[in-house]
What does this fold into?
Amino acid sequence: MPEESAGELVWVRRFLAGDQEAFWKIAERYQDRIYRVALSACGTQDLAADVTQETFVRAYGALRRWKEGSLGAWLCGIAVNVAREYRRKFRALRRLAEIPEQSATPIEESAADPEALRVVAEEVAALPERQHEVILLRFYAGLAYEEIARTLGCPEGTVKSNLYKAIQNLSSRLGTRLREPHV
Amino acid sequence: MTECNQIREQFPAWILGELSGPQAERLQEHLRGCPNCQREREEVTRTIQAVRDSAESFRRVPYPGSLREELQAKWAKPASATRRRVLWAAAAAAALILAVLGMLLYQSFPGEGRREDARAGLRVKRPAQLGYGLAYAGISTSPSEVISGAKRFGVSSPSLLGVALKKPEGPPTLSAAVLWARLARIRSQFGNVSVRFSRKINNG
It folds into this structure.
């Protein structure tokens, strides 16, 4: 077992034995990663913060059921599920209020062109739900195919075919936009 | 399906280094004689790089605030929130009982007070009784009382209230009963998030 996983296992055991501080150790280690996944999934900082909080609230109640694999991947799985729920709710509300969908804001310190990042984030957010989630978990959360398959409850082959379809979809949508002079 | 289409389907796996040796060789052989597929491959390569750049741009973003303090504050409140929910459930149950009682009372005096409440867009047999039931729940058909009733559901934003009043297409002013049901549904679906979102509508 990798050293990191062994450490996580100790925290989880301590938490299950009643040590609340162990839960905060876990939260501290993963809060930024979960927030980034939530931000790339939801597109707004407010919503991403809500998704992050809800992820840890659910993890608090469900840690007893965590049995195997990476704790980070397990938390990312919860975050993706929460983000999916929030996206659906807010999509309905946005439609009601006639407010357009929002995509993740590019980060200014990045070396890449901010306009290109905005365009990519928009197109990633517009992908079909399952393709969107596979892209998030593979590229933004950095999970292995096996972890994504466990998180989404489908075979690895399905994860890969969804990822390839997502890339092809993005390629046809981004084709002209990425060739534009400012991008 | 043409050979080009079959080849192009494999570009993502190839560029991500997930194709076997013989498959990759077959692709390269095809590419040597197909400029269209070469262009397509460049496009897919650019796309994957763009997604990687996008993901990279998120790598240094920290959680804004103190998750521990926020969750501890959230967990410190559940008792009062539960009590509020119980009170609302009791009020709703009382309003329902009143409505049923009113209906039963009306049934014992057939032929009186039947008319259509045009403003509410709702066919009611005895508006006075309906009004009494709604007044008990803190909502009536007058706009100002509708707004104050809506506020009691935690929907404080006139914009969001406007949304509730406006949609779906129908009479410009919904009946208080419909509004009440819709607000209750919005609140049960969105919880406290609706308040935050309503601010966004105002800002927009």
In short: The mean pLDDT of chain B is 63. Chain B touches chain A at residues 8-9, 11-13, 18, 43-44, 46-48, 50-65, 67-68, 70-71, 74, 159-160, 163, 167, 189-190, 193-194, 196-197, 200-201, 204 (CB under 8 Å). The CA atoms of residues 95 and 133 of chain B lie 6 Å apart. The first helix of chain B runs from residue 3 to 9.
